[in-house]
Structures are given as C-alpha cells and as structure tokens.
Amino acid sequence: MSDEKFVILDFETTGANITDNPDKKLGYFKGKKWYDPIELALIDLSSDKEYHWFIKPHKDYLKHKWATDIHGYEPNQFMDRDDLHEFKDIYGEISRILTGKTAVAHNAFRFDKEVMIQTCEKYNLLQPLCKWRDTKQEVKKRYPDMSATQEDIAKWMFKEEYKAHSALEDVRMLSKIFKKLNETPAWIFV
Questions:
Q1: Can you give the pTM of this predicted structure?
Q2: pLDDT at 28
C-alpha cells in the first residue's frame, strides 16, 4: 500500500433537512447543510487503533426531524445520553489523528468530507490537513456491475452482514473493504 498512512472514517448525522431544499427535487445530498454529526468513528490503520465518539448535534438541528429510520437514533433518547461530546472539544484529537494522513470513507466526496468541512466552518475550526479517498467511487469503477452500497459490498465481497449506520461498525467493515481493494492491483480493472 506504499508509505501513505490511512484513517478509516465514518460520520453519522441527524439527517435533518434544515434548508428549504426538498430532498426529492435536488437529491438527498445536494443543497443540504451537514454540520450535524452525532457519531464519528475512526480507525488509524497505521496502529489499528479505534476511536469513537457520540457528538451533541448543533442546536440548529434539535427541532427538526432526524433520519431515525436510517441510523436508529431517536432525538430525545440520543440527547439524554451521558456520553455526548461537543465537537469542538474532541476536534483536537480528531485533527491530530487525521493530519498528514489520508481519510478513507465510503461516499467521502458527497458526504463525509462535506460533514467535516461544514462542521469545521460552523465551529470556526481549521480543517484537518489530510487527503481523502472515496471507496464508493473506487468500487463503482472496479466493479461496475455490482451494488456499491457498503452493506451490499459486505455481502458480495465477504458474504457478511453487519449493523450498518453505526459509525463504529461501518469503519470496521470499511477497513476490510479498503484492505481488500488495496490487495487487488487496480490495473486488473482497467
């Protein structure tokens, strides 16, 4: 894999649409504000160390409907947790882990990177100095006839099912997918 260091990353957000842009008109990811992370997990592949936080969402998202059907978090129950962190309080560690490495996420360019950028902007934090890789795009390019959702990849690549939309379970599975993608030379798929 070269000397490059990778950090597997996954955000879960409230999924609330606080803009006036209807999802159906622009598509789920376009025109949304994404400074609403509620969970973040990382695996630093250089040490195999896992990091995991539940994050108190920004107040702008507390009065809007969450995507509970996707991630399973009910707003009231989530806000009653005793393990919630303010994003700005954990950001120093997040930045330390990511700086100088490549963040790897499934749908990085349409979601996870945007969550990081917009959340840093909202809290006046400098973005981590890291590169990004998107495994969803890599899978689509290498396996154009296969589904590129992370859940489906787990099924067809490893014959496994897992608890998707739990940030910690997502990074664990994505770590396996990423390692598998990197053990197969890309030139085979040209």
A1: 0.89
A2: 44
